[in-house]
Amino acid sequence: MLPTIAIVGRPNVGKSTLFNVLTKSRDALVAEQAGLTRDRKVGRGKVGGMPYLVIDTGGLTDASDGIATRITQQALQAIQEANKVLFVVDGRDGLTAIDEMIAQRLRSFNIPVHLVINKTEGMQSELVNIDFHRLGFSPVHTISASHQRGIEAMMETVLSDFSVPEESEMDEAEAGIKIAIVGRPNVGKSTLVNRILGYERVIAYDQPGTTRDSIFIPFERDGQKYTLIDTAGVRRRARIADVVEKYSVLKALQAVEAAHVVIMIIDAREGMTDQDASLLGNVLDSGRALIIAVNKWDGLTQTEREQVRYTLTRKLHFIDFAEIHFISALHGTGVGHLYKSVNIAWTAAHKHISTPLLNDVLKDAITRNPPPLSHGRRIKMRYIHQGGQHPPLFVIHGSQVDSVPDAYQRYLIRFFRDTFDLQGTPIRVEFKQGENPYQGRKNVLTPHQMKKRQRLMRFVRRSK
Description:
InterPro entries: AAA+_ATPase, G_ENGA, GTP-bd, GTPase_Der, KH_dom-like, KH_dom-like_a/b, P-loop_NTPase, Small_GTP-bd. 36% of the residues lie in helices and 21% in strands.
């Protein structure tokens, strides 16, 4: 197993900034706002040939409200999963009562704790350390995460007790089907993640905007590895005023790009809204395999269910490839069937089809339904090959293919989908116009052709 390091501390001491530095990424949201991080977030880093896992956590406080309690539970769970803890404090603020409370909690765990004094740029280390000696933690590291000062020396000390893992352990976290769960705020994304995992991995709370970051969670089921991606709720851009929410939405859209399969959640009580349609458009533009999950299905009457089915059939007629599941994330109804659809969609999106077989199928499609004429000229499709996967891309070469109507393109896509069983993934068809070998070349007449042309012109003039 890779060494696991948990980062804990009170809000706004620079934990997420340190996480980004340790992982050499920008995965964690960072802003001048306390309490930005809520769920625990896992990333990978490497120092001097030693790889490790690092867990970012929400700020620990003495508050006892609903969200604060859940943030604390997430942080305590991260401590239990870790081999060592980086206890981050603010060097400019000095020692606070909340720091002492956190230190007391950390002593109850049988885990080595490294005290990390952050935000010490422009300050003398000896003077900064004096205030924190009473906590009794050793060693003490004086760093500046925003300026990346003292980070490498700190990690070399932290990882000095571990041996370099084998290659199989280092690559273990990279495997699996990545599943992004997206939707509007408060439709049950985090509840579905917890239901799939079987425990409360992310904070699920009856309040829109609870999830602010994209959380990547690897797990395994029936020998198949997966990575769940819980995302923040996405609203239309015109309704987003808060800067943090803008970054959260951006992270959610980036998670869609990083995923193999997207599960789009729709609230059965509210039906398909304009916000859902806008988000669905972003998913379709990304080309990712798609599954639609209609959540909160248990609370509807039979009449309401029939109305929801009718509305979805009418509004989603253009997405004929996506499987629709009616589920209850809270009670688990229908959740188990999502795995089969995910596997089918992932297999279809990564399917490789040989060129000879593609050309035989294209010939069959043209024989059954030839393309229409374009300005009186016949459209000729001569050759096809697969240009990419995820989603499948088919490139067709020929003449007059620039004029292929949209309706005929949809016919070809349906034909390919039914023939190759490409369910759950969009299909893209690209046309390549063949070059005219005589384009730009002037036809020079021979002397015999010139005399013949002159005789023809004299005949035309006499006939007039």
